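Work Package 4 report. The design task specified in the project plan requires that, given a folded chain encoded as C-alpha cells, an amino acid be chosen for each position. We show below one input record used in the internal validation round.
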C-alpha cells in the first residue's frame, strides 16, 4: 500500500518540479511591465533623478561661465531723473543762498566698473569649472547605469532563487510525507519522520526570505527607473543574464592605464587642477593690471528757477578712472597667493590619490571577474554531481531499494548547488558590468 502511495507521490513531485521551472514572471498578471536588461539601462538613462540633478548642475555651471564672460560688458540704464530744490544752499565761495530750482535729465546712462584681471582670468576659471561639472555628471551617469543594471540582475537572481526554493520546498514536503508513510507502515522510525518534517518548515522559512528579497529588489529597480511605486516588473530573463565583456585574461596593467586615462573622474580632477592654476595666475599677476571705472551719460538736460523747466538741451558726460588696488599694502595679496598655491597643491594630491584609487579598483574588479568565472565553473560541476546524486537516490526509491530519508542529504545538496550556481552567475554578470564601468566605458554600448 505504502509503495503505491510512494510512486504516486514521487510522480506528483516530478510534475510539480517541472511546473516550477516556469519563471515567476510567467505567473504574473498580464498587467505587469515586462523588462529586460537593455530596457532597464535605457529607462535609467532617461528617467533617473540623480541624472536630472547633475544635468541641472551643468546648466548652472554654464550660466556661471556666461556671467564670467560678461564681466567686461557695461550695464545700461535708460530713464529720467527729476531734481527739485527749495531752500538754502552754499555756493563754492561759501555764500549762503536761498534757492528755488528744478532740473530734469532724460537719456541713457552706461556705467562699468571692471576688474580687468577678473575679466581676463575668471572666464578661464569658469570654463574649467564647467568642464569639471560635466565630467562629474558623466561619472554619475555611469554609476547610475551600473546601479540600474545591477538592480535588474539582482531582481532576476532573487526571482530565480525563489523558484529554486519552491522546488526544494516541494521535494522536502514530499520527502516528509514519504518518511511519515514509512514510519506508519513500520518500515521506518518515527525519529526519521520527525527529522524529515523539519525540512519543509526550514524551506518555507527560506521561501519567505526569498519573497522578501524579490520585493526589495523590485522596489530598488523601480526607484532607480523612477516608475510608479505600484508597478509590477516582469523580467524577461528566466535566469541571471550571462555577459561576456571580459574573459579574465586581460593585462591588468593595460586596464589600469586605460581607466586612469578614460575615467570621467580623471577629467574632472584635471579640470579642477587647471581652474586652480588659472586662479593662482590671476592672483599672482592680477595686481599689475589696473581696474577701470567708466561712466557715460547722454540725453537732454534742462532746468530753471521755481518748479518750471522752460527748456532742455543735449548733454553728454563722460568719466574714466584707472586705479590699482593693494590690499593690506600688498600683504593681503600675498596671503591670497599662498592660499591659492596651497589649494592647487591639495588638488594635485587629490589627483594622485584618485589615480591610486582607480588602479586599486581595477585590480579588485578584475580579480572578482576572474574569481567568479572560476566559481561558476565549480558551481556547474557541483550542480551536476548534486543532480545525479538526487536522481540516483530517487531511482533507488522507485526500485524499492532505499528509504526516503536517504534522499534528504541529496535533496539539500541539490538545492544548495542550484542556489550557489544562481548566485555565482549573477555575481559574475554584475562583476563584468562593474569592471566595464571602472574602466570609464559607456555601459549602454555593451548591452
Amino acid at each position: 500500500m505504502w509503495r503505491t502511495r510512494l510512486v504516486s507521490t514521487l510522480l506528483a513531485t516530478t510534475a510539480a518540479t517541472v511546473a516550477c521551472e516556469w519563471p515567476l514572471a510567467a505567473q504574473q498578471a498580464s498587467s505587469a511591465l515586462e523588462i529586460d536588461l537593455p530596457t532597464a539601462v535605457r529607462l535609467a538613462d532617461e528617467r533617473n533623478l540623480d541624472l536630472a540633478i547633475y544635468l541641472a548642475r551643468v546648466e548652472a555651471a554654464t550660466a556661471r561661465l556666461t556671467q564670467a564672460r560678461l564681466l567686461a560688458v557695461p550695464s545700461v540704464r535708460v530713464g529720467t531723473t527729476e531734481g527739485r530744490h527749495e531752500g538754502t544752499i552754499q555756493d563754492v565761495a561759501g555764500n549762503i543762498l536761498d534757492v528755488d530750482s528744478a532740473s530734469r535729465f532724460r537719456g541713457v546712462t552706461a556705467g562699468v566698473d571692471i576688474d580687468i584681471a577678473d575679466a581676463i582670468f575668471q572666464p578661464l576659471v569658469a570654463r574649467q569649472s564647467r568642464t569639471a561639472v560635466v565630467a562629474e555628471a558623466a561619472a554619475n551617469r555611469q554609476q547610475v547605469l551600473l546601479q540600474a543594471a545591477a538592480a535588474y540582475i539582482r531582481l532576476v537572481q532573487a526571482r530565480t532563487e525563489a523558484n529554486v526554493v519552491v522546488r526544494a520546498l516541494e521535494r522536502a514536503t514530499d520527502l516528509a510525507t514519504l518518511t511519515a508513510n514509512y514510519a506508519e507502515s513500520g518500515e521506518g522510525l518515527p525519529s526519521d519522520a520527525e527529522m524529515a518534517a523539519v525540512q519543509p518548515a526550514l524551506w518555507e522559512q527560506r521561501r519567505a526570505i526569498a519573497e522578501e528579497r524579490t520585493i526589495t529588489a523590485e522596489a530598488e529597480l523601480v526607484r532607480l527607473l523612477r516608475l510608479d511605486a505600484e508597478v509590477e516588473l516582469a523580467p524577461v530573463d528566466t535566469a541571471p543574464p550571462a555577459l561576456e565583456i571580459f574573459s579574465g585574461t586581460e593585462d591588468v596593467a593595460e586596464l589600469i592605464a586605460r581607466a586612469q586615462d578614460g575615467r570621467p573622474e580623471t577629467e574632472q580632477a584635471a579640470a579642477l587642477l587647471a581652474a586652480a592654476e588659472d586662479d593662482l595666475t590671476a592672483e599672482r599677476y592680477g595686481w599689475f593690471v589696473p581696474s577701470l571705472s567708466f561712466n557715460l551719460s547722454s540725453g537732454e538736460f534742462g532746468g530753471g528757477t521755481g518748479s518750471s523747466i522752460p527748456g532742455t538741451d543735449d548733454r553728454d558726460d563722460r568719466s574714466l578712472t584707472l586705479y590699482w588696488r593693494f590690499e593690506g599694502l600688498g600683504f593681503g595679496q600675498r596671503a591670497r597667493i599662498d592660499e591659492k598655491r596651497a589649494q592647487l597643491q591639495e588638488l594635485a594630491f587629490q589627483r594622485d590619490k584618485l589615480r591610486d584609487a582607480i588602479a586599486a579598483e581595477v585590480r579588485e574588479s578584475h580579480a572578482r571577474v576572474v574569481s567568479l568565472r572560476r566559481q561558476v565553473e565549480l558551481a556547474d560541476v557541483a550542480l551536476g554531481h548534486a543532480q545525479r546524486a538526487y536522481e540516483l537516490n530517487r531511482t533507488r526509491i522507485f526500485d524499492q531499494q532505499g528509504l526516503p530519508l536517504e534522499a534528504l542529504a541529496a535533496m539539500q545538496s541539490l538545492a544548495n548547488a542550484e542556489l550557489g550556481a544562481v548566485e555565482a552567475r549573477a555575481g559574475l554578470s554584475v562583476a563584468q558590468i562593474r569592471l566595464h564601468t571602472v574602466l570609464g566605458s559607456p555601459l549602454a554600448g555593451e548591452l
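Strands lie at 33-35, 75-90, 96-115, 233-235, 291-305, 312-323. Validation will be extended to a larger panel in the next phase.
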